[in-house]
Amino acid sequence: MELLDLFFGGFSIIFLGIFLTLILILLAKSIGHYPEPLPRSEKPKREVLDSIIFWMINFVWLSFFIFLLNPIFINLFGDSYYIGLVVGTLISLIIPSIYVIYKDKWNVNDLALGTKVKSWPIAMYSIIFYLLFGIYNFFRLVPIQLPWYSLLLLFYSNAFLEEFFFRVIIQSKLERALGQFKAIVYQAILFMLIHIPANIIRFTMDGYLPRLIWNFGFQLMHGIIFGIIFMKTRNIWPSVICHFLNNWTGTLILLFL
């Protein structure tokens, strides 16, 4: 009993860190292979600048929404989710897609939305890893109970939109400018930094500094792992599924209990 309390209690963050590190090493070094790099951009500085501008627009909107609009809409209407969903779709999906298709001349395959997967081993192993990761969190934390249609919306808004924006748009543009390794690392840093508003809100609620620090650390590690999965598969769906399982496996389990 004491061992279980240790495993799911005080030292769970250490176990999570070790588990994520092992996943990162396995996916980076031992499973699947890296594909041919994307074609080098003739204007690498513009690709980097595009990525920064897209990120800044997203960050400013997210901060504005979390700190200002969210409380107002909750007070007026009792909910702010759908306004966030609409604007998030515009900023993370529609505008970047139109830009890269018409400005950068990307084709449908560049958007990585199809069914072709470059490396099935990394797709399958990563999904298994994150399913186990989610099950562990189910016993460690108190999961949120939601109806099935809310989970479908979260699959889109929480997993798909973030993966499309950071992996398909940001990482692909950075790879064309800086190469594969730097693209993975830099997009992961941006992925971590986009969580600043949400992490600050959590910190104002519990005031627990170590949690704030490890949240940033885990977000960085997840960003690197999702970046590796996307790069090796050249398909958005494995990383979307992993992202969803990481956040909502506990809620899925409650749905079927």
Précis, in short:
The chain is mostly helical and 257 residues long. The chain has helices at 2-8, 12-30, 44-77, 81-102, 120-140, 148-178, 180-193, 196-206, 209-233, 236-256. The protein has one domain (41-256).
Q: Could you list the spans in which at least 5 consecutive residues all have pLDDT below 50? A: 1-6
Q: How are helices and strands ordered from N to C?
A: HHHHHHHHHH
As for the number of domains, it is 1
Our Rg estimate from Cα atoms comes to 19 Å
* Mean pLDDT across all amino acids: 91
Class per helix and strand makeup? mainly alpha
Number of helices: 10
Shape, per Cα inertia axes = globular
Number of strands: 0
Largest sheet: none
Which band does the percent of strand residues land in? under 5%
Distance between the termini: 24 Å
Helix content: over 70%
Description:
This protein has 257 residues and is mainly α. It has one domain (41-256). It is 80% helix and 0% strand. It has 10 helices and no strands. The chain has helices at 2-8, 12-30, 44-77, 81-102, 120-140, 148-178, 180-193, 196-206, 209-233, 236-256. Helix 4 runs parallel beside helix 6 (148-178), helix 6 (148-178) runs antiparallel to helix 10 (236-256) and helix 7 packs antiparallel against helix 9 (209-233). The radius of gyration is 19 Å and the shape is globular. The two termini are 24 Å apart.
